[in-house]
UniProtKB/TrEMBL annotation:
This is Flavodoxin. The lineage of its organism: Bacteria, Pseudomonadati, Pseudomonadota, Betaproteobacteria, Burkholderiales. The keyword Flavoprotein applies. PANTHER family: IRON-SULFUR FLAVOPROTEIN, NAD(P)H-DEPENDENT FMN-CONTAINING OXIDOREDUCTASE YWQN-RELATED. It comes from Sutterella megalosphaeroides. The keyword Flavoprotein applies. InterPro entries: Flavoprotein-like_sf, FMN_Rdtase-like_dom, ISF_SsuE-like, TAT_signal.
Amino acid sequence: MTDDLKTIPLIPRRRLLQGAAAAAAGGALFPARTARAAGSSKKVTIVTGSPHRRGATFLLADEFIRGAREVGAEVFRFDAAFKRVTACSGCDHCGLGAADCVYRDDMFELNPHLIDADLIVLCSPLYYFGFSAQLKLVIDRFYAINSQLHSPREAVLLSAAWNTNDWTFPALEHHYETLVRYMGWTDVGRVCAIGSGTRSSCEGTEFPNAAYELAKRVCRSE
């Protein structure tokens, strides 16, 4: 057992199910999503999964954030590769949001921003036609706040890949589409940068500007 694992007695199954039902009905360990006044700033949470701060994926994230802030959005950024995020062990202690996750790591920093976001941006390099392991760890940990996250909000996918084939991104996009559908979110845009395995190769393409313009379009206050 690592020091990331909080030692907590297991919850009896009946109590676990009761807690999950309560969470689905509005109970939550983290603050609930706040009501938005008309014209208020959009809250954007962007989660990156690249281990390269000077890579193409970070370039897409930087440009998206630049566009979002230009139109007045509040942006919270979480660079998963540089955070402590433990893999979900499927222990069910959390009960989909009825109790704390047993892993006391940096997800406790991210979770309130996920729950309160109007728009969640998933930004990852393409690794073997899927999300990077660093970002997938975060997605798997959605389980502990599933009840709070499973509500109408918007989503964006940003990704960069070396390949230029027309079959480069469909597997990742299908995963993203399925996740968005399950969570009850709405896909409002994607930038899938082919031929962008390095920052320099991406800089000469239309993709950084596409991320910037996408942010200006989808991050305006309503």
